[in-house]
């Protein structure tokens, strides 16, 4: 099984053709990663480098709108003295830390366990109080760049590179069950989004005639442990979010900045929504995190932050960032932290003049607070929340910021000056701690 070295982005040289810009990590089949642009153009299975080059040559107009955000200045690191409206505060020390055998890819909390998937796909479990290993890995997921870990109750869902949708018991790390989407040719990009007992997945089925494959959205019933339905020829997406009250599931195509909502009942298209300024914005740095849901409202990070009626797609409100040329990147819902215990919508934005962290009232879109980060804040910045605190892990600067959800005040910061920007940073939180995984490090902090 050919895989790259831990912590090195070159390890994505083998993997799913659905990896964004050719990013995906190797699996048993040794598939070569092909960029999304190559897929759109019908480029055959060539090397990652060749696919990207061909995509750039053939899509000059699209590439032009993406180029601006790719090389902002290097972040010099957070300050220790806080100025008004800036992400800076006292330094924090971890409650515990663990040196990992391999670099981390993603972290989640489930069933009293910190679940970590390393960049080889091994699913590991740690005690949230001490960091001690709870069990040794017996299951291996396929690892696709930026794909999240989906947790429902005590189960962690993922996939392998043979087209299996997999359910892992978070209490002991064993495989509870799995189902295969196709006997061959199924490549799963992500497992994300839930509605009742249903969990969703996107990916691709190879064209048996030898042409490029087609995108698929699968719906899996976790009670019957089988596929309920699938929709073919969907847009490429790492973001899948469902609103059970509204009866729809939405996918986000981050290349064209378009949302498509499908009926949970009959899978018909209910509505589509495009960003109002799609030609001016670049590819999201965190495409899997560009949509969130609360009740019957979707929150979409694009040229603006859109609050959309989940049933109709109508715009309820939009939020803007203060800096010219800003692009919203990732968004989360923080329950009960808004005015009168309403929900709070927290989102990151990037711009040529610096990144920002925003909080909006979920029902009205009224700006609650905004904090300014460094030049690259918001680009590859992972968000989570717990115990009334928003946590932002900034990959390019190697930092974590803990921000009071109600006030926007920075409680503490953590910075690792020794870490390369090439590493993936992932965060997860419960009511007692936040867990930060990057490189060969797993850390826990108190809120």
Automatic annotation (TrEMBL):
Keywords: Membrane, Transmembrane, Transmembrane helix
Span list, region Disordered: 1-27
InterPro entries in alphabetical order: PQQ_b-propeller_rpt, PQQ_rpt_dom, Quinoprotein_ADH-like_sf, WD40/YVTN_repeat-like_dom_sf
Upper taxonomic lineage: Bacteria, Bacillati, Actinomycetota, Actinomycetes, Catenulisporales
Domain Pyrrolo-quinoline quinone repeat: 91-272
Source species, domain of life: Bacteria
Protein name as catalogued: Pyrrolo-quinoline quinone
Transmembrane segments: 38-58
């Amino acid at each position: 099984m050919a895989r790259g070295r831990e912590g090195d982005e070159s390890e994505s040289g083998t993997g799913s053709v659905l990896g964004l810009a050719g990013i995906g990590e190797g699996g048993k089949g040794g598939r070569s990663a092909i960029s999304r642009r190559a897929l759109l153009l019908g480029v055959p299975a060539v090397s990652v480098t060749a696919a990207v080059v061909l995509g750039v040559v053939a899509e000059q107009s699209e590439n032009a709108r993406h180029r601006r955000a790719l090389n902002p200045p290097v972040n010099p690191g957070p300050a220790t003295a806080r100025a008004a409206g800036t992400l800076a505060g006292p330094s924090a020390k971890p409650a515990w830390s663990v040196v990992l055998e391999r670099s981390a890819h993603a972290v989640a909390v489930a069933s009293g366990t910190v679940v970590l998937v390393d960049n080889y796909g091994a699913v590991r479990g740690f005690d949230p109080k001490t960091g001690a290993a709870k069990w040794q890995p017996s299951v291996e997921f396929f690892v696709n760049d930026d794909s999240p870990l989906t947790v429902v109750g005590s189960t962690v869902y993922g996939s392998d590179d043979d087209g299996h949708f997999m359910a892992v018991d978070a209490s002991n790390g064993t495989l509870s069950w799995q189902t295969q989407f196709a006997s061959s040719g199924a490549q799963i990009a992500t497992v994300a989004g839930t509605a009742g007992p249903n969990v969703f997945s996107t990916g691709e089925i190879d064209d048996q005639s030898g042409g490029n494959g087609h995108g698929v959205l699968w719906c899996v019933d976790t009670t019957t442990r089988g596929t309920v339905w699938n929709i073919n020829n969907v847009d490429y997406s790492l973001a899948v979010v469902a609103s059970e009250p509204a009866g729809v599931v939405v996918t986000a195509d981050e290349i064209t900045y378009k949302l498509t909502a499908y009926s949970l009942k009959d899978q018909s298209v209910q509505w589509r929504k495009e960003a109002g300024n799609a030609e001016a914005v670049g590819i999201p740095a965190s495409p899997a995190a560009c949509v969130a849901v609360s009740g019957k409202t979707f929150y979409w990070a694009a040229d603006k932050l859109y609050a959309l009626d989940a049933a109709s797609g109508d715009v309820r409100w939009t939020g803007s960032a203060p800096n010219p040329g800003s692009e919203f990147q990732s968004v989360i819902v923080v329950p009960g932290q808004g005015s009168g215990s309403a929900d709070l919508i927290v989102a990151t934005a990037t711009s040529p003049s610096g990144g920002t962290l925003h909080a909006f009232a979920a029902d009205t879109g009224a700006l609650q607070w905004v904090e300014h980060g460094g030049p690259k804040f918001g680009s590859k910045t992972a968000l989570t929340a717990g115990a009334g605190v928003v946590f932002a892990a900034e990959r390019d600067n190697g930092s974590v910021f803990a921000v009071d959800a109600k006030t926007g005040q920075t409680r503490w910061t953590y910075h690792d000056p020794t870490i390369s920007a090439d590493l993936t940073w992932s965060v997860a939180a419960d009511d007692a701690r936040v867990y930060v995984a990057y490189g060969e490090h797993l850390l826990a902090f108190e809120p």
